[in-house]
Amino acid sequence: MHDLRALRDDPAAFDAALTRRGGEPVSAQVLKLDEDRRAAIHAAETAQADQKRAAKDVGAAKASGDEAEFDRLRAMVAEKKAEVTEMQARAKALDEELTALLLGLPNLPYADVPDGADESDNVEIRRWGTPRTFDFTPKEHYEIAGVIPGMDFETAAKLSGSRFMLLSGGVARLHRALAQFMLDTHVEQHGLAETWTPVLVRDEMMLGTGQLPKFGEDSYRTTNGWWLVPTAEVTLTNIVNGLTVDEGYLPRRYVAHTQCFRSEAGSAGRDTAGMLRQHQFEKVEMVSVTHPEKSEEEHARMTACAEAILEALELPYRTVVLCTGDMGFGARRTHDIEVWLPGQNTYREISSVSTCGDFQARRMNARFKPADGGKPAFLHTLNGSGLAVGRALIAVLENGQQADGSVTLPEALHQWLRGKTVLTATGELA
Fold first, then answer.
1. Residue pair 215/329 in contact by the 8 Å Cβ criterion
2. Hey, which residues are catalytic here?
3. Contact 30, 98 (CB under 8 A)
């Protein structure tokens, strides 16, 4: 949601920022709706005041015996009542139209976000680790001998259709260990509060974080109206939905491990091999709720938290700033962290860490009371993957693969695997 006062003050700047994201200027349309809405509200209030005055005068006219004046005033009361009803209905309709328009507009990028149309215009800001040199041609995760027994696409397709996965044996345990390792690291080393949340949410929660109304087709909805969360960002961020908290409450830093569900509308034909892009997957999600003056610092901090997981797993990665044309709907700036996948010979996204400013807070009406007693202000929210568990599994398998089909596992995971260090060529942990 956007600040109407800021738009009124500088509509040209608003349009310029929206244009950077590939949108069309809309300030004139927004301001016209806002003007008409306020005019209707004023007209309703004026008519209501006239109605009240006329109603008072009706009694006096009746008492004086002036039947003509009595009839005129009574007719005026009825006329003003109808006018009030009409203007209130018009104001409500214009307000709904204005709200719908604003809810469909993406967040505005920060000035330092690079301009661009798509991922080819993203800007790399750093790399960590050196991709391993193999003395054989590395395979993609689903082709590795030790992985094949524990990664069953055919049974998953029988159960649920395409883009689902059945994991078993050593691969399933490795997948679980990765999630546990991420959670414990974020809690014990990064100071995040572990949180367990529902994966079914109401419309208002999806609206609050920006999945609705524009992107409903990208998510799944149950027959009784709940939405399956595309990420725990929805539940974690909405913890402050409708609240006004004390400044001392901030920052709040949450982490949750959940199942996530995405219909992947519009992605037909993309990444269909293996488990890179699934309808159901697991993610360890980080969310921060903070004071506006701290959100820039928090963005850097959250990015470092996600990067630390990859470094502990000894997985080479690069971090990029997304350009204006590649950012998500609710972001003002996004850092994508891309892990090296030797089977594809490229870096692939494993985390997006975004700062949203007060965009989501306005949609959720989430504020804080300044410690100095000032007027309540909107919070800032941030979110990021810490990490996508399935993609981390892919990266561990591909980077640790050996010529005999086994996989050497990162030392950081050994304690979560009870000392197991290898996925054998037959799919067992040893």
1. yes
2. 262, 277, 349, 352, 391
3. yes
How many Cα atoms are found within 13 Å in the side-chain-facing hemisphere of 101? 19
Cα radius of gyration (the chain): 28
Residue range 188-224, pLDDT digits in tens: 999 999 999 999 999 999 999 999 998 899 999 999 9
Res. 269: pLDDT tops 60: no
Structure tokens at 221: 């909805």
Match 């950077």 to its residue by tokens: 20
φ and ψ of 309, to 5 deg: -65, -45
Q: How many CB atoms lie within 10 A of CB 306?
A: 25
d(Cα 418, Cα 302) in Å, to the nearest integer? 29
Q: What is the 3 state secondary structure string of 34-60?
A: HHHHHHHHHHHHHHHHHHHHHHHHHHH
With tokens 């009240």, the residue in question is 52
For residue 410, is the peptide bond before it cis, meaning its omega torsion is within 30 degrees of 0?
A: no
Which residue do the tokens 């691969």 mark? 171
Q: DSSP of 53-96, one letter per residue?
A: HHHHHHHHHHHHT-HHHHHHHHHHHHHHHHHHHHHHHHHHHHHH
Q: How far apart are the C-alpha atoms of 99 and 322, rounded to whole Å?
A: 28
Q: Give the tokens for residue 357.
A: 């400013």
Instruction: Give the full edge-to-edge strand order of the sheet including 244-246.
Output: 244-246, 367-369, 377-378
Q: At what angle do helices 67-103 and 27-64 cross, to 10 degrees?
A: 160
Residue 351: what pLDDT? 98
- Digit-coded pLDDT (tens) for 360-396: 999 999 999 999 999 999 999 999 999 999 999 999 9
Residue 126 neighbours by CB under 8 Å, 6+ apart: 318, 319
Does the model's pTM come out above 0.85? yes
